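Researcher: Before we compare anything, I want clean individual predictions. No alignment, no superposition, just each chain on its own. First chain goes here; please echo the sequence and then give the structure tokens.
Model: Echoing the first chain and its structure:
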Amino acid sequence: MKILVTGHEGFIGRNLASYLQHKGHEVEGWEWQENKYPDAQQYDRVIHCGAISSTTEVDVEKVMKQNYEFTMKLVEICDMMGTSMQFASSASVYGPGTDGFNETSKCLPQSPYAWSKYLIDRWVAEYQNDFKINIQGFRYFNVYGNYEDHKGDQASPITKFTKQAKERGVITLFENSENYLRDFISVQDVCLVHEKMLEKDVNGIFNLGTGTATSFKDIALTIAKKYDARIEYIPMPEKLRGQYQEYTCADMTKTLEQVEHTFIRPQEWIHESK
């Protein structure tokens, strides 16, 4: 296939473009430009990963322009040109997850970023039967893996803890981190599911996690053991208290009805990584 990957210079987009090229696809990249859009007619598929991905971005106008308005226009272009499309959503749309993490669960977005993703998901879900193309949105849970060093504070705990262990021999962990659990999914698994879903004649929103939650403490202990580092516990900053998400875990039923896949556990990935 000839595939366009938007956001190909970012963490997930870079991994996805590289993986698809390795699998024999012809891949081109696209980065956001003011008032410019790709010619979707040139491609067999468009995979839209491009976005302002910072969950702490407070410029609502900027987020809505680049994440929401651009995506809406790109969907319209793809539909008009007959080019099926996949796009990146986020588990952040669930907010605290008080209603669970099923695609039909109540969403409670807590940031401009999460709202921009939720509005697209809502629109696609409402009008999915009206599209002439296949359009698939993936709610990424906590993605980790290669090429995310540049993300700084937005990088996954696995990358941040590994960097601390290698450079300082000390991993900084919030107190009570055994009580904070996330559904960590490797970027390689994300790429594999994207590829498998390219062949599926189906529309809609799909969770993309592993269906298993792991505590921050377990992650830190695994990394500390590998690099002979110690763990230093610190109080959670006041600004995070009351809004720090305690738990995420994807209900993968809908996704796994479409594709068969066995996900790597984060502990296994840590052991195997260099």
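Researcher: Okay. Second chain, same rules.
Model: Second chain and its structure:
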Amino acid sequence: MPDGLIVPADATEAVIATLDADPWFDRWPPTERFAVRSSGLGEDAPEQSFAGINETRLNVARSDVRDAVARCRASANSDRARAYRRARALPASASATGVLIQRMIQPVAAGVAFTIDPLTGASDEIVINSAFGLGAALVDGQVNPDEIRVRKDDGQVVSYRVGDGLQGVPAAQTVPPVLSTIASPGRATLADPQIEKLWSLLVAIEREYGSPQDVEWCDDGAQIWIVQSRPITIVPVTAADTEWTRANLAEVLPEITSPQTLDVVERLLNIAERLYMGRLIAPYDELGPMVKAFYGRLYFNLTQLRRVCRITGTPPAAVLRSLGHSGHISAEDEHAPRPALREVLPCLPDLLRTLWRHLTAARVFRAQQARVAEALAELSALDGQTPSDARIWQLLVDHERRSPESMEAVLLFGGVLFQEQGLRKICDAVGFPFERLLYSHLASGERSVSAQQAFDLVALADAARSEPRVAQWLVRPDVRFTQLQTELADTAFLTAFNRFLERYGHRGLYETDWALPRYAEDPTPLLEAIRMHLRDGRDDRDERAMAARTEAEAAATRADFERRFTGIRRVTLLPRARRLLATIKRYYVWREQCRSDMIRVMSGARRWHLVLAQRFVERGWLDRADEYFLLRVDEIASVLHDGSRASGLRAIAAVRAADLERYRRVDMPMLMRETELPRLLRASGVTDRPDDTGELRGVPVSRGSVEGEVVVITDPADFARMKRGAILVTRATDPSWTPLFTLAAGVVVEVGGVLSHASTIAREYGIPALANVRHATRRLKTGDRALLNATEGFVRILQ
């Protein structure tokens, strides 16, 4: 700690008048500067900190010390200090203030550190904020600091995010060696040795005081100085209760998402959720954001969703099932909460706005279609040109700026919960099974774009089968699909296949991650599916016959349902039930169309990202084009603005690649509390085992029953293992898995709900499907023979 002199709170004016004559000052040269800091008797208790309330003076000359001390003492009776004490019911004695005079350190870097996460209360990591120069600008919120997260138990750097801490630093000021994770737009303020030293000091300080600490520190280039430590007084009470789920998100994003996509999607999805729900979502500093990334995976905030349920009077169980929540649903969650009026009133404008959006849903859909057309036109406008980096980047920035509106439209059409709840109540009133009515209706009528993709793929297989030359070439063991256009030129199949790519080529495996190729770039998964159809023989499921059976079943179900209405209910409830059914079906179709369109625009943006990626390689900034997607967009923007910063890109890519490998070794749960994360990580792995009966339970999402061989597929690279008539078992699916549904007799997924891709396609393709089967990919093995009963909700291992 810097050497110091204490002025007690009870020091008299006479003592202060002679303060600058104290012999302590004679230890230092005349040019020495001092920090004069107030230290109130009521400060830094566990319940309050007075941070920023009382005065601090920096760079004070010896001749000005008396005045600085007087100002610090007087600040204890300022308006803001009195208001702070009143708000906390502190006694008048809390105004007594001592003063600490310390030798002023002239830092290269300074900042604050928290020995626990100050937002979540998680105690396994130390959070360090750092900026060049004095720490005052950081504490006052004038600069965006570096954020360094260090594991408390071993000092390992978990992450290093560089801020803009260079602002206001003289050009001649010495900068320490840059950490290996240097990023733009600033330079890293701390190197590994400084981080290690600071970590050891912080651990020792927390141990000394026996509680989490908020520590101010500075580094003068020779050593680390500690200038203040106080208890952390603000840890959200709700942090310990925050629940997170990967349900739904695990279906549309790969297990480990590229850093670039994860960074952008997390930010834009939070904006879209706020656009959609407004003040129905609590401020983030109360309950956290709606989505957040942990170890390469994106999670939904269940605590926020429970608040939305409370305000809207919706049973949480309905939202949980809609998401495909895989955790236990308590009996309490089945009941609609009664919100307090004081909680509802501020949200009324957003409730009314959301209601209006649903009432004008057709207009929203048309507006979304227009936005998509405009975006595609802009992305295609540069075709045939060689645009500058700046022109490409502006195009991508414009695309990103519009993205939340497209996401919000998907959220709106995915928000059929209220209609489903209304329909469920009507079904309960007349004693008719809700799932039977809903699922048969969703399977009939207009197909979603994703379901149509599956049917069109089967038609391609039939086209290939009808041309012996095509069929023989596709099933050859040494076939190279890159030769498709030349080997199958002038065939009807190739013409049909190219038409298929025009319609669906923007899609791909885990298509929400634009770091991954589209079908138009690599059609191998589609051709493998066609190949499997050819290998396994003609599909005996006739599309028109299937559609007729589905329509007949839906019509019979609706007729049976409507016969339950008698008397006044036939006049009041039946018309409402019909409207709700029509709306739900329309929303399902529109949601899939909006998602497909959003992916189409994303695919257009990916083309220009790939142009920049190739340029980065040609300039020697990166070794491979795929490393480009390890970079965040702010880092790319900074390098495009100032090419001299590109020297650090290889280091960033190397660190991010290593992070991804580390993340893959972590078995992240589908459901967790944030404060449980350290324990969950330490205990990574599955502890439960199949029960003695060999029966697994799940949520029926497409009714029916089938017995067959199990094929477990955990990665798209294993698509070729799928067999016709098998029960597909996987973690989750997105539209890229559609080819497998054309072969499967049934589907079992670990995550997903009624809104999930697996549910939608299975229903429309007429195959039984079960979701939320915990650890199905571990408990079922390829080659097992199983009975899938997606009406009663179980899978039973037979052999």
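Researcher: What stands out in the second chain?
Model: The chain has 29 helices and 22 strands. Additionally, The longest strand covers residues 125-132.
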